[in-house]
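Notes, p. 3: input format for complexes.
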Amino acid sequence: MATGDMLGWNAMIHKSGAKRAKGGSGALTQALAKRLESDGGKIICDAEVTEISEGPPWKISYRAKDEKTKFEEITAKRVVSACHIHTLFNKLLKNPPDELKKRVARTRVGNGFGMIVRHAVEELPDYGDGPVGPRPGTKDYHTSLQLLCPSMDYLQSSHRDFSFGLPPQKPSVVAMSFSALDPTLAPEGKHVLFTWGQYHPYELSNGEAWDDIREREADKLYDLVCQYAPNMRGEMIDRYIQTPLDIERTLGLLRANVMHLEMSLDQMFMFRPLPELSTYKTPMPGLYLTGASTHPGGGVFAASGYNTAHVILREHS
Ligand SMILES: Cc1cc2nc3c(=O)[nH]c(=O)nc-3n(C[C@H](O)[C@H](O)[C@H](O)COP(=O)(O)OP(=O)(O)OC[C@H]3O[C@@H](n4cnc5c(N)ncnc54)[C@H](O)[C@@H]3O)c2cc1C
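Output follows (317 residues plus flavin-adenine dinucleotide):
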C-alpha cells in the first residue's frame, strides 16, 4: 500500500503542524479569491473550460453554466492548468503532442479511496472520558480525527473488500466533529459529524451501481459511529452523501481519487505527474501545471501553487 512513501510525504507537509481553516477549507479559497480581486484580478465562476488552443497567445474557450449556448473566449500569454492532468490532456488541449498525451494517459488514477457522509447531528459523539475541549460540552478529542476500527484485522477486511472492487462489508471510518472547535459550522447547540469511509471503490465489481447503494453504504458508516458512541443513535438530523461517483461528478476528481493520481513512489516527487512535466512546465511555451496532479500531490496546503508561481516569476522577472 506504499505506506512508507506516504509516511515520508506526511512528515514533509506537516512540518508546521496540521491546520484547519475557520469555516472549513472553502474559507481558504474565498480568502484567496478576495486577495486576487483586490489586486485587480477577475474570477469567472460556474463556467466550464471547453477547449485550450495552443499558443502563445493561448485561447481558452469556456461556457458559462447558466447560459449553455453562450461561449466566450479569453486570450492569454500564459495559462496555468490546475485541473486533473488527464482532463487537460484528454479533454481540453486542442493539439497536445501525441507521445506526451499517450504517456499522460498511462499515469495511474486508481480506483477511488472512500466515500464521505456529512451529517448534521443533535449532539457530539461521546467516545468516553477525556480532557475538556475548547467549547462548552466538548472534549479535547473532538478536535482530532478518530479512526474507528476495532482491530487491524477489521481494517484489513475493509481494505480487502476494496481490493476486490466491493463496497466494504465492514467499513472503517475516520470521524470528524469540528463544530466542537468551530462554532460557524452548526447552529448553536447542534453539531456536524463527517464520516470519511474507508475504503470504497469507484468501480464496483459486483454489478451494483453507486446511485442504488448510496443510502445503504452511508448507513453502515453512521452505524459504526453508534457502536463507539451509542449516544448518537437517533441523533442524526440530516446527511449529505458523497459516494465515489458523486466525488467524480461534482468535483471533477476522476475515479474519485482525491489526490488526482495515485500517490505511489513512481508517481511522486520528481516523477509527478511524469518526469518531463515535474517542473510545473510543459513543452508548450506558456502552459504551466499546478494542483494535485503535480508535486507534492493532493491536499489543501497550496504547495504546488506556490511552486508553480515561483517557476513563472523566475522565468519572467
Ligand atoms: C471528501 C474529501 C475529503 C478530503 N479531505 C482532505 C483533508 O482533510 N485534508 C486535505 O489536505 N485534503 C483533503 N482532501 C483532498 C483535497 O481536497 C484535494 O486533494 C484538493 O482539493 C486538490 O486540489 P486541487 O486544486 O489540486 O484540485 P481539484 O480540487 O481537483 O480542483 C480542480 C478544479 O478544476 C475544476 N475543473 C476541472 N475541469 C474543468 C473545466 N473543464 N472547466 C473549469 N473547471 C474545471 C474542477 O471542478 C475543480 O474545481 C479531501 C478530498 C475530498 C473529496
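Residues 23 and 184 are 6 Å apart (CA to CA).
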